[in-house]
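Fold this: ABC transporter, permease, Fe3+-siderophore transport system
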Amino acid sequence: MGPEGLREAAQRGSQEVAMTAGIIKTSDGRWSPVSRSNRMRSLWLAALFALVIVLLAASVTVGTRNVGWDDVAAAMGGAQNNIDRASVALRIPRTVLALLAGGALGLAGAIMQGVTRNPLADPGILGVNMGASLAVVVGVAWFGMSSLYAYIWVAILGAGCAAIFVYAIGSLGRGGATPLKMALAGAATSVAFASMVIAVVLPRGDIAGGIHSWQIGGVGGATYERILPVLPFLLVGFVISLLSARKLNSLALGDELATGLGESVATARAVASLGAILLCGATTAICGPIGFLGLVVPHLCRLLVGVDHRWLLPFSTLAGACLLLAADVLGRIVARPAEIDVGIVTAMIGAPFFIWIVRRQRVRDL
């Protein structure tokens, strides 16, 4: 196919994707969202914002002890002269962390599914979270790592190495990095890294308890001192990821068509993946590996806003925050006076959803 044919095919492909996303071509030749779809998406966006606010309020007031709004207001003013106000003071940073971590993982999942064009892509399934986890465990067990900044850098490095390794394995053989091969390579890598974590921790009884608790994945025990160092990494990851929306729309057309539209496929994939790796690594460093959230959220958001990443990425961010906040609140109330970590709750939600996706997708379509 010559350059003109390739460009014509790219334009036809872009029109199909645009129609699916609810986009029309204006008189001046530019693509523009259909106004009615825009209004509907705006309504859903407002509903998500409202849900985030409701869940933030529930996260502060609901737990092993339910707290009234007068105590919440007093605690936010600095008062901690009774147990309810002290509880609120502990819940506020926990709520902030759940908001940030949920948004980061939801956005990272949408980015990974867009980069790989794989409906099963997820930081946990592709082994990225477990790569970050293994790097942190090795740093703690073998090098005595204790600084939170070291945790963050090492987790990001481990997440990046895991992503590169999975992509390299999935690219071997005929057909290159197909979605099915990527999913299989990621699952096998995740299991292998999990076994390596056990092998590293097993002879170290002095750190085993803390490592096992961290590996479950949770937001309990959050403090502002733990959250502040991770904010710059999350901020950069959010910015890079959200700015990759148009490039991901081009990648959705396929490599040849994206190239025909003037897109540098390798650069687009690398930049978007960098944003997802920063989000996954930073979140894993402070919360531990939380699985399935990045798988569930983008699929739910596509039902609301379609495949246009300019809408899908912000929606996935808000929906991820909602899901993790809801999972944290649910984990506090179902086992009172004890708690269930969010990593367990999201796994209980995500595992059946993963099975549904696998049954819904034909293997030849993956």
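Residues 9-36, 362-366 have pLDDT under 50 and may be disordered. The domain at 46-62+83-365 is CATH 1.10.3470.10 (ABC transporter involved in vitamin B12 uptake, BtuC).
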